[in-house]
């Protein structure tokens, strides 16, 4: 671990904000890590870079691909819009409200009862 600590911090640590705050989300974990990475840098810092994305499932299958980031980091560009959409990611995570397991269970029961109801108006956030 010590031998790769600096490289890990340099290449991977920025992608772990959501994982460290939420734990394993299974399928969306890799995208949570991607959002975490994007939230740490400006469009200018990411323009033209390549991002390696690796995901595995239960040791049976794995996927490795790379994303080539657009060179266009101008205001209003696709890259700029994506970065702007996640710049407040840490603030959104920090604004979560801690609730008791009982309240969580009540909220889940409400979701189960109201799932797929037409014209439903949510009762809580």
TrEMBL record:
The alphabetized list of GO BP terms reads: acetyl-CoA metabolic process; cholesterol metabolic process; farnesyl diphosphate biosynthetic process, mevalonate pathway
Gene3D superfamilies given in the database record = 3.40.47.10
- Name the domain of life this protein comes from: Eukaryota
- Stated name of the protein: Hydroxymethylglutaryl-coenzyme A synthase C-terminal domain-containing protein
The record places domain Hydroxymethylglutaryl-coenzyme A synthase C-terminal at: 1-125
Q: Tell me the keywords, alphabetical order.
A: Cholesterol metabolism, Lipid metabolism, Steroid metabolism, Sterol metabolism, Transferase
Keyword Transferase annotated? yes
SUPFAM superfamilies to which the protein is assigned, alphabetical: Thiolase-like
Annotated GO MF terms: hydroxymethylglutaryl-CoA synthase activity
Record's InterPro entries? HMG_CoA_synt_C_dom, Thiolase-like
Transferase: present as a keyword of the record? yes
């Amino acid at each position: 671990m010590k031998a790769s600590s600096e490289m890990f911090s340099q290449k991977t640590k920025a992608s772990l904000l959501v994982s460290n705050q939420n734990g394993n989300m299974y399928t969306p974990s890799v995208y949570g890590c991607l959002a975490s990475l994007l939230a740490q840098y400006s469009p200018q810092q990411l323009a033209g870079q390549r991002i390696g994305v690796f995901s595995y499932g239960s040791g049976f299958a794995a996927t490795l691909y790379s994303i080539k980031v657009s060179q266009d980091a101008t205001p209003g560009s696709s890259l700029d819009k994506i970065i702007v959409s996640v710049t407040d990611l840490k603030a959104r995570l920090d604004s979560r409200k801690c609730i008791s397991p009982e309240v969580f269970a009540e909220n889940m029961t409400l979701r189960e009862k109201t799932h797929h109801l037409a014209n439903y108006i949510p009762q809580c956030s």
